[in-house]
Amino acid sequence: KEKTIRPELPAGFLEKLKQMRYSDHTIRVYTTYIGDFQQYFAGSNLKRISPDEINAYLLHLIDKKNISSCQQNQRINAIKFYYEKVLGNERHCYKVNRAKREKTLPDVLSKEEVKDFLTVAKEDLRFYCMYSLLYSAGLRISELLNLKPDDINISRSLIHVRQGKGKKDRYTLLSKPFINKLEEYRIAYQPEKWLFEREAGVQFSESIVSKKLKEIAHEAGITKRVYPHLFRHSFATHLIEQGTDLKIIKELLGHENIKTTEMYVHIADTYKSKIKSPLDDI
User: Residue 160: which residues within 8 A CB-CB, separation 6 or more?
Assistant: First the structure.
């Protein structure tokens, strides 16, 4: 099977993304999707593509590729970025239909599953510390990998998350029982630039961390689809189950809008409905 040759990105596209300080993840997504867009319209002048043609392209992806509403919206954002930010077109002169996101609740791990997972993860101190922080601090994977040694405040049991989503700093929890393990890791690995380094001064990639996570989950006997963000979902849901105030959880997660945080109330309610009464077994 021949490898598809991707066209060069539109002039100024990558430079504008970096100039506007988009995250590495968003840059990867946008460049992939604008590359697909270029391939679909190969031979055409992108500057002259009409909104109707773009809508036809999106319908093609929905019908033939069965893309989700979430991916559809991401692709629209990538296209809009090119026309509005790179080319400087007016926002109102470019219109495409957006899909409504499906209102599905993410799955979460139970506390027992988290315990089983971390028990297996203990075989590798470095990955154990990574996954413990993902869960105990409610971090996004990008936030975990961007942590620096000085971001850990042991005396206050806090973690300084710098330039999280939306380019905002925040503080989140550092589990006190976990501090000894983290100190053990720091003594053993002597991290320099990043808290977690693949080698001296080199960050881990998200793909390596995700792959190892899936391997550990499989070994732990967890049958759910396990991915890094699942630990963040589980962190928030377990805090709600403990009775933590929603506004505090919002700040810990770095959410812009409390409505985003309210999702976890619904997840917690769903799990409550699955709890058996002690009388059920009598």
Answer: 150, 151, 152, 153, 169, 171
